[in-house]
Amino acid sequence: MADAKRPNQLLRNLNAKVAAIPMVATALVVFVGCTIWTIVHSFTKSKLLPKTDFVGLDQYERLWKTNKWLISIENLAIYGICSLVLSICIGFFLATLLDQKIRFENTIRTIILYPFALSFVVTGLTWQWILNPDFGVQKIVRSLGWESFAFDPLYNQDIVIYGILIAAIWQGSGLIMVIMLAGLRGIDQEIWKAARVDGIPKWKTYIFIVIPMMRPVFVTALVLITAGIVKVYDLVVAQTNGGPGIASEVPAKYVIESMFKNQNLGQAFAASTMMLVTVLIILVPYAYLEYGGKRRAK
Amino acid sequence: MQNKYNLEGPQGTKPRKRLSGTNIMLYGTLLVVAFYYLLPLYVMVTTSLKGMPEIRAGNIFDLPVDITFEPWVKAWSTACTGLNCDGLSRGFWNSVSILVPSVALSIAIASVNGYALANWKFKGSEVFFTILIFGAFIPYQVMLYPIVILLREVGLMGSLWGLVVVHTIFGMPILTLLFRNYFTSLPDELFKAARVDGAGFWGIYFQVMLPMSLPIFVVAMIIQVTGIWNDFLFGVIYTKPDIYPMTVQLNNIVNSVQGVKEYNVNMAATLLTGLVPLIIYFASGKLFVRGIAAGAVKG
Amino acid sequence: MNFRNALVATTALCAASAVSAADLEVTHWWTSGGEAAAVAEFAKAFNETEGNNWVDGAIAGGGGVARGVIVSRILGGDPMHATQLNHGRQAEELVEAGLMLDLTDIAEEGGWRDIVHPVSLLDSCTVDGKVYCVPVNIHSWQWLWLSHKAYADAGVDVPSNWDEFVSSAPALEAAGKVPLAMGQQSWQSSGAFGVMLVALGGPELWTKVYAEKDADAAASAEMAAVFEAAAAARELSAGSNVSDWNLATAMVINGEAGGQIMGDWAQGEFAVAEQVAGEDYTCLPGLGVNEIISTGGDAFYFPKQDDPEVEAAQKELAKLLLSKEVQVNFNLKKGSLPVRGDVDLAAANDCMKKGLEILASGNILPDGNQVLSADTTGQLEDLMVEFWNDTSITAEDAHKRYADIIASAD
């Protein structure tokens, strides 16, 4: 860069460094410091107040023997994979539809994106209401004459997590659609012309030419979705509060309940450390591929 | 039959027929999609305009027979949690007073961060940035409790400014990324020319970068306004009932059932809570899309 | 000089206004109709005292949610001035950490040890001989609430004990009613099970399991019988799709459900709905089998403050909560029993009178919250809510997991 040759580089860089103090403080004190603090305390038997009487891996042993935690992890896996795949597919599909030079594009885009402006609490309450078997979809279909129709995901242990998924997709797919659409618009028109000249059908062009070109867009979408998945909490609290029974529990809820309701900080910290490990398992290979790959390319 | 006829007609000469089969499929699909996305809004609005007897008797997709604004009035000004019967109105103003400083502070800090990272790289800056981005993925639960202690130590726990700081911290990764990518995408020549003219760190930031980055500021604002307005977790943990934001009050009102569950009031309260981000979104819809194209995608 | 004087005067004025205000922020989780009416009695009495003002900090969503908010605020160094908690072990560590106001002087001055009945309630507030909380009411879990309308519609008599309740269930089901209303929240599942344990397994078994954490008793055949009964009750509650306890109570009030196992706070809901005990509904203490009640309840703690004026107001509120008049007014609305044996409850209805009689006869147990840690309580709640909702878990499975939890309980 040009500034490397400047004589007063130190002073100017000082300005940049001063400006970066909040960032550095956040990175070190909050993201690194607090994380380490939590990990350290996950090896203690802290109850209501954090203490430092270490008990080794006891909290982790108990965690992995607890049914509620196992169900939480399973739910997160189902929810995570489904919402990742569905959001990306639906987002991309809707984006290609909107990219067909259609009329009312703005209107339709606005309709698809507006749920993104609503909170998970609002989303959860709304869908709880629509999926309520006594008032919502089930009752409507039954009143149309299909008496045996059953669609009560929020009251059925086996499918409750999909009931939450419906709401989550409703809320989040608009954003993915917009990102994908922006990516599609960024594709050079020449490529379409070339494909048409070569007689390649439209769907083939999308799958074999356009999607590979949009790799960075997909990565952005992927990152945005994954960041949201592990954090899912408000939606579950508002929509089912973990029920029926404990069928829709999620890890974030387990942590907060252990922390405040059951007054068992050690257990809460062990659970949150496991959440962190889950994130790292997903993130580290990705970061290695991204950064490692780039470095080699240079 | 019209469409079938058109399909069999000579292809290629008139590529944009109004009623071709593909078009009908296309608009049909879009209609179904729009229906799915609009349904909950429709249900919320109609339910909030019905009286309770009508809700119990009818189904949720019926239009209201007797339109009543009672539920809205109640949700706004008289719904109770415990002894506080002032509805959502207090939460609304609390949310506003949390929102304004949080959005301003987080965007100010993140834009400067992004600018420093894009144009004034210093030793270690990339390391901190990487930590910051990792921070976006760390589940909040990991940091929730230590932050209680941090806030206690600086005396901000339970205060409005404590929550502002928390929002600034957790908004920082995504906003910094956004700004860094945007500033990196600006032509390098601009920056170099300003340097030749002798402008410094802040000079370039205020005179060159800021005027050029209105769209990205709008995007950042939309992200922050919706994010902070919709926050529930931080609001419930780091504040006290006096300054509970609107989402927490919404949850309180919906969960405080005194007698019967008043779905109409709940729906009105839900809509009221969602109104601010919705308005902002509808008002700035195009900029939002343009900004995402500029920021997120080119990264 | 003028300027300085003005400054001093302004400061003094600010200080003075802070003193005379003495606003006390009080947090609690009483948000249902009956509860809110009851807490209003506290607020009214406190606002009538000189210069004091009750700032209500109600937190919705039940004790599980509210306790988190309360505890994190106390730990965060910005505590409320007074807060509801279930006395017993929930606040143990907060007291030990020195975060709660010591009320021993006013307790001795007011002779609390003589007036609080049963005195075990005051013991739960006492740590190392010092008093840290004010018990305000006695709540007992062991009640079965029955809807006269539901039984009339089904054409059978209102049962007088649990066995009759179970055998009358088919008739209710035939009439399209849910025999047993159950809310889906975990504390309700766990509480209902505890009631069945006391009523069907007997108080000795309860004491061994909960108070003494006797692993053998928890794994015993008597315990297995209780689980079988609970599995049967689970069948009766199928079709009860509500979440909040008061919505389940509403099913009983409307005659949609035959009965509900719920604590005596349910009475507040019947009162709000203007139903009369003995005419519209029946209450069976100890499920009509073992007439025993637990004497848990709510208590108020006063987190330590720096301001001596606030502390004075806190103590004033503490005294007020135990005064005769407030005790009567509050408990009549709440449906709970007063913590003083020396007040006149002429206005009490049938159910409260039954409770008072049992209390006087001494057939009492401590409450689960007084003997179990929050951690163990939470584990039991998780198990029970899973058991009540997932019919694939057999009574044996649940019993085994239950015994494990008790064996490792603290």
UniProtKB/TrEMBL annotation, chain A:
Leader sequence residues: none
Membrane topology: Multi-pass membrane protein
Segments crossing the lipid bilayer: 20-40, 76-98, 110-130, 159-184, 205-230, 268-289
Major place of residence: membrane
PROSITE patterns attached to this UniProt entry: ABC_TM1, PROKAR_LIPOPROTEIN
GO biological process per UniProt: transmembrane transport
GO cellular component term of the entry, any: plasma membrane
Localization annotation: Cell membrane
InterPro entries assigned to the protein according to its UniProt record, in alphabetical order: ABC_transporter_permease (IPR051393), MetI-like (IPR000515), MetI-like_sf (IPR035906)
Domain ABC transmembrane type-1: 73-286
Key word Lyase present: no
Assigned keywords, A-Z: Cell membrane, Membrane, Transmembrane, Transmembrane helix, Transport
This protein's record includes keyword Membrane: yes
Organism domain of life: Bacteria
PANTHER family reported in the protein's UniProt record: ABC TRANSPORTER PERMEASE PROTEIN (PTHR30193:SF42)
Family: Belongs to the binding-protein-dependent transport system permease family.
Protein name: Sugar ABC transporter permease
Organism from which the protein derives: Halocynthiibacter halioticoli
From TrEMBL, chain B:
Keyword Transferase belongs to the record: no
UniProt entry keywords in alphabetical sequence: Membrane, Transmembrane, Transmembrane helix, Transport
Chain ranges passing through the membrane: 24-45, 92-115, 127-148, 160-179, 200-223, 265-283
Signal peptide bounds: none
A matching Pfam family: BPD_transp_1
Record keyword S-adenosyl-L-methionine present: no
GO CC terms in record: plasma membrane
Membrane topology: Multi-pass membrane protein
Intracellular or extracellular location(s): Cell membrane
ABC transmembrane type-1 domain residues: 92-284
One GO biological process term: transmembrane transport
Predominant localisation class: membrane
Sequence similarity: Belongs to the binding-protein-dependent transport system permease family.
Protein name according to UniProt: Carbohydrate ABC transporter permease
Protein's organism: Halocynthiibacter halioticoli
UniProtKB/TrEMBL annotation, chain C:
Keyword list, A-Z: Signal, Transport
GO CC, any one term: periplasmic space
Localization, UniProt: Periplasm
UniProt KW Signal keyword: yes
Gene3D superfamilies the UniProt entry points to: Periplasmic binding protein-like II
InterPro entries noted in UniProt: Bact_solute-bd_prot1, SBP
Residues of the signal peptide: 1-21
A Pfam family this chain is assigned to: SBP_bac_1
Purpose of the protein: Part of a binding-protein-dependent transport system for a sugar.
Family affiliation: Belongs to the bacterial solute-binding protein 1 family.
Record protein name field: Probable sugar-binding periplasmic protein
